[in-house]
Design goal:
Length: 268
């Protein structure tokens, strides 16, 4: 048996030094101090001391996890990784995870739902990218899958997001031909993680029928760029390369020929 002869507070808040038989023995968390009702004059057996220290180790790990959770929701994987980073033994990590789960602070199902809703509001990501991000955070395939995500991010909501993306990208590519706009925008939507059938539905609704005036302005802008670029190559190469580049950019061949003829007239 050992007797507690002194209990003193450390400079670090919430930590206390325990002295047994006049000698420093160990330190404990304030919660452990209260849990075991430690007080000066109390006698402790070796078994009691071992249990006190085990509980203090658990409290240390628990406090790390709670502080980590204080900033935002975390997944079980993130909590485990954080505690491993702090060199907490696996047995205590399991205890902490179980305690936090029971208290409702650690819930991968709720995390997934919250994450998907946040992505819907703050990003332009589709279900595929959202699923990948959830997997990266350690959410299991049973929770992070397309079906579960689209139960929250419904097709109707995805179409609304796609419509906004299309409008934004059309403005970005306004100097391109209607055909080139459609190609680039479709490609961009795929990279954002949306399904092909929804992309097609959204693109059809957007209507990429060329506006003659806008198409003519885009052709003139693109054509002038290539006409200048190949001016030093000689008239034949300038004409051929400009025509080739404009056709690759989706402009009508007849409109290209007309524009080049006008340039040749001006240059004559």
């Amino acid at each position: 048996m050992a007797t507690i002869t002194k209990i003193s507070a450390q400079k670090r808040p919430g930590r206390y030094n325990i002295f047994l038989d006049g000698e420093y023995a160990f330190a404990v968390d304030e919660g452990v101090l209260v849990q075991f009702a430690l007080a000066k004059g109390q006698e402790l057996t070796p078994d009691q001391i071992a249990r006190i220290q085990e509980q203090d180790n658990f409290r240390h790990a628990y406090n790390i996890a709670v502080n980590y959770l204080a900033h935002q929701l975390r997944t079980r994987h993130e909590i485990w990784a954080k505690l491993e980073e702090k060199e907490v033994p696996p047995a205590y990590i399991k205890q902490v995870a179980a305690e936090l789960t029971e208290q409702g602070y650690l819930d991968d199902h709720a995390y997934r739902d919250s994450f998907v809703r946040t992505q819907m509001v703050t990003t332009e990501n589709g279900p595929t990218i959202i699923e990948r991000k959830l997997r990266e955070k350690g959410i299991s395939p049973e929770l992070a899958n397309r079906e579960a995500i689209t139960d929250i991010f419904t097709p109707a909501e995805q179409l609304a997001t796609l419509a906004k993306l299309i409008a934004k990208q059309r403005n970005h590519y306004r100097r391109n031909s209607a055909r080139e706009q459609e190609r680039k925008i479709r490609q961009h939507l795929y990279t954002k993680g949306f399904a092909g059938d929804l992309i097609t539905q959204a693109m059809d609704a957007a209507d990429f029928t060329p506006d003659p005036e806008e198409e003519a302005d885009a052709l003139a802008a693109q054509g002038a760029k290539y006409w200048r670029r190949y001016a030093s190559k000689g008239a034949a190469v300038q004409k051929r390369k400009t025509k080739q580049m404009l056709y690759q950019k989706g402009f009508d061949l007849g409109a290209i020929d007309t524009w080049i003829a006008e340039q040749e007239t001006e240059d004559a």
